[in-house]
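Here's my example:
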Amino acid sequence: MKELLKKNIAKHISLSDEETNEFCDLFETRHINKKEYLLREGEICNFEGFVAKGLFRVYHLDADGFEHVLYFAIENWWITDIDSFTNERPSSLFIEAIEECEVLLISKKNKELVYRSIPAIEKLFRVMTQKTHVSLQRRMIDNLTQLAYY
């Protein structure tokens, strides 16, 4: 499973084999069953995850109980509630496995440690964050400019 993570890292930055292994060793492997939650609304998200196998959906429940899917996380994607993870506040999201999943999780503490020991990892997460912002901006523009059809 960590081989997929190593390939993902190599797409964005160059690390030595030793650095790559040091970084990958900080991840905990978790098996999540179909329909099981990796995160529930109200919990503090204490991980960033890499989907090694399976499919997750990330959604929010509004006041009327309607689900609003933010995105699906497929294999070779990263997953978290960035607001909850960064600010250590209760999540407003659910992260549910749509099928059997294997996910590699890194804690905030370990992520901060690796920023100091392998500075290039900060670049990795900066590049991924920028790509996420571009995607979200495009999605917002699409949503704002689409016509409603009845």
